[in-house]
Amino acid sequence: MSWTLAFGARMTARSLLEVRDLRISFGTDHGVARVLDGVNLALKRATIMGLVGESGCGKTTLARAILGILPPNARNDGGSISFDGQDLLAMDRTKFSRDVKGKRIVFVPQDPYSSFNPLFRIGQQIMELMKWKSPRRTAGERSLGALLTAYPKARYRIDRDAAMAMLREVQIADPEQAFAKLPGEFSGGQRQRLMIAMSLMTEPDLIIADEPTTALDVTIQAQILMLLKRLAKDRGVSVLLTTHDLGTAYEICDDITVMYAGQDVETAPVEQFFAAPRHPYTARLLASLPSATGEVREIGGEIPNLIRAPNGCRFHPRCERAEPSCAQTRPGVDGQRHIVRCFHPLAVREQAAT
Amino acid sequence: MSAPAPILAVQGLARHFAVHNSIGMRSGTVKALDDVSFDVKHGETLGVVGESGCGKTTLGKTLAGIHTPDFGVALFEGVDISALAGAERRRIAQRLQYIHQDPGNALDPRWTIRRSLEEPLLTHTTLPRAEREARIREILTAVGLPATHLDLYPHELSGGQQRRVGLARILTLKPRFVILDEPTSGLDVSVQATVLKLIRSLSRSFDLTYLFISHDLAVVRMMCDRVAVMYLGRIVEIAPAEELFTNPRHPYTRSLLSAIPQIGGRRVTDTFVLEGEPPDPGHLPSGCRFRGRCPKAAPLCAEREPALEPSGAVHATACHFPGDARNA
User: Fold this and answer.
1) Which of A44, A298, B9, B326 is most exposed, with the fewest beta carbons within 10 Å of its own?
2) CB-hemisphere CA count at 13 Å for B215?
3) How many structural domains is chain A composed of?
4) Which of B49, B102, B145, B190 best probes binding to A when mutated, by most A CB atoms within 10 angstroms?
5) Cα separation of B76 and A20, whole Å?
6) How far apart are CA A306 and CA A317, in angstroms?
7) Smallest Cα–Cα separation from B174: which of B133, B105, B114, B120?
8) Sign of the dihedral through C-alpha A137, A69, B160, B61
9) Residue B3 has what pLDDT?
10) What angle do CA B207, B212, B213 make, to 5 degrees?
11) Helix B113-124 to helix B86-95 angle, to the nearest 10 degrees?
């Protein structure tokens, strides 16, 4: 089965990651929350895609679904995630954990303060990762229990040198010394540098960065974004950057996808996205950014409760362009590079006004 | 001077924290606030910006009486509030209020909204019950919530509504001066817009003066009349908002401004130059504390700490080599 899937996907070889009509729901005490409601996303090789939206829009759930780390109460109601021609949802779990998760698809977390174990030295934590996920680990090495498997000496030396080189790449001043330090001895910015270094050590194809600079100050944020952009572009790695900060998305993304209440509403190249948004939600979102003129513009209403989410286009109760049809069916995909899912998108003329 | 007396005048305010080593011995001092002076005029909004650890929250908490300053005076409506305690402090607290980062979170989950709103009135006033109820209803309407919400518990409200209740709780005492500590951090832009709009409309309807502490420069620019930039416990630059954002003089302010992404403009990740991170506040360098990261640093900067001095009609900068007007 995986053969046919691999063959089929090679036809659309330009997408590294393709999420199709993904539906995920969570069972809660109050009912079933349909957190992802038919999400589509295509990410090409060596590009940076921004996944933006307000809290609760499902961007983290989507990131977790791709990484295969959804909580146990999550239920997959349909759709597919294909990564480099393989369907991740149908893949053998052992194979997925060994070859994909943490190796070809890696994760840069939001909070560098809580993502390292405070009791282990940085070097130990890096080498523990490399022991299992090093690109030089051969298929022949059997995975027994973690305590029983030895780290082959020769590979250890090469892996360690590669790790040192990577720390130098992210401008950690003295990698030898850094190896011997505890996470608490680093500042937040430095820890995020270490995280980015670790994510690249396995030579991944895709980095999922979940709000990587939210916890950082603005001058440090600029440094980290520069670093992430440079390293990803140099190595041809794709990045899926989830963020609620549109400024961050503008900085480093090639394309941007906006999500609203579990649905993707618009995807566009970054310049077009900011200059000429077509979905009413995107336009309102951009207008609500603080402006130098001092005018405050809000989006009326509140984001819906996903247990009783509106039918059709989930934005329709807050949308001034909505018509009865919007509450019936969800708009389909319209457009090639600039995709908008709306029955009444903003026309080209109106774009200047918003 | 003919100008009316400022509602708040801060002079040489300092708050130091002792640092202890692993066996509990005092090993140094963090000067979270170090010789901070500024005035706030009645009715204006003064923004305080800076990165984490710059002392902006300590400033707010010291003014609110949560910390006691080690040096300096803070005159609030002509009264020195820096050393007040007990009943005198409580009397001031009615008129000078501090709002936490997330005021919604500060609500007791087991109290109804009514009880949360009533508590400050019970503590600080002797109003009879009917008047308390009337005051609560008036305030709740002002923050845009229906009176039916009075009998709900915090978890029954959305995050944005909780923030409104948090704001309402401060306003029940009819303060004159409100210290807002990061009022929008962690909010989505659309919710942020709603909160900012509310903060602004409340200042008009209740005749409030704000000290607006934030790390978000775009928000500060939009909300504030004047802005003070802090770095490691000191104000390095203070000026009217438009002036500060269009014509920054201190090298740190310039770096800070150049680090904000500007949608549609040049990309920070293509142009940003500031290297390094702030030094350990327990071990500050001699002289100017920004010199380690400053592109203009000269020997003088290591010898003498620059004082906050007027540079231009409305501007004050703490730098030996402030930038000239309108050139970078």
Assistant:
1) B326
2) 21
3) 1
4) B190
5) 61
6) 14
7) B120
8) negative
9) 64
10) 160
11) 130
Cβ-defined contact of A226 to B192 (cutoff 8 Å):
no
* Rounded mean pLDDT, A70-97: 91
In the block, tokens 């906006």 appear at: A258
Q: Is B147 on the interface with A (CB under 8 A)?
A: no
Q: Closest approach of chain A CAs to the CA of B69, in angstroms?
A: 26
Q: Which domains does chain B have, with CATH numbers?
A: 8-317 (3.40.50.300)
> What residues in A contact B51, CB-CB < 8 Å?
217-220
Q: Nearest CB to A296: which of B160, B193, B245?
A: B193
Determine whether the interchain pair B260/A247 forms a contact, defined as Cβ–Cβ distance below 8 Å: yes
Q: What is the CATH number of the domain that holds A51?
A: 3.40.50.300
Q: Is residue A29 part of a domain?
A: yes
- Which of A122-136, A238-252, B147-161, B266-280 shows the lowest per-residue confidence on average (mean pLDDT)? B266-280
Chain A residues with CB within 8 Å of chain B CB: 54-55, 187, 189-190, 217-223, 225-226, 229, 244-248, 250-252, 274-275, 284-286, 288-292, 294, 296-299, 302
Residue the block writes with tokens 């504390």: B289
At a CB cut-off of 8 Å and minimum separation 6, what does A150 contact? Answer: none
| Minimum mean pLDDT range among B18-22, B40-44, B109-113, B297-301 | B18-22
Q: What's the CA angle centered on A232, arms A231 and A235, to 5 degrees?
A: 85
Domain of A296?
Answer: 1-101+254-354
Q: Is residue A157 part of a domain?
A: no
B244 has pLDDT over 50? yes
Going by C-alpha positions, the residue among A113, A243, A220, A211 that lies closest to residue B215 is: A220
B272–A226 C-beta distance less than 8 A = yes
* Chain B: residue whose CA lies nearest to A246: B263
> Considering only CA atoms, which of A239, A254, A251, A274 is closest in space to residue B260?
A251
Q: What pLDDT digit, counting tens, does each position of A11-43 carry? A: 444 689 999 999 999 988 888 999 999 999 999
**Three-point CA angle A175, A178, A183, nearest 5°:** 145
Whether pTM > 0.80 for this model: the answer is yes
Under 8 Å between Cβ of B171 and B87: no
pLDDT digits (tens, 9 = 90+) for B280-314: 777 888 889 898 888 888 899 998 989 998 887 88
Strand stretches in A224-320, DSSP E: 238-243, 255-260, 263-269
Q: Is the pLDDT of residue A10 over 60?
A: no
**A153-169 and A188-201 are packed helices; what angle lies between their axes, rounded to 10 degrees?**
130
A351 domain residue, yes or no: yes
Q: Which two tokens stand for residue B255?
A: 């770096």
> Strand pairing of A339-340 and B45-49?
unpaired
- Rounded distance, CA A69 to CA A101, Å? 9
ipTM of the complex: 0.77
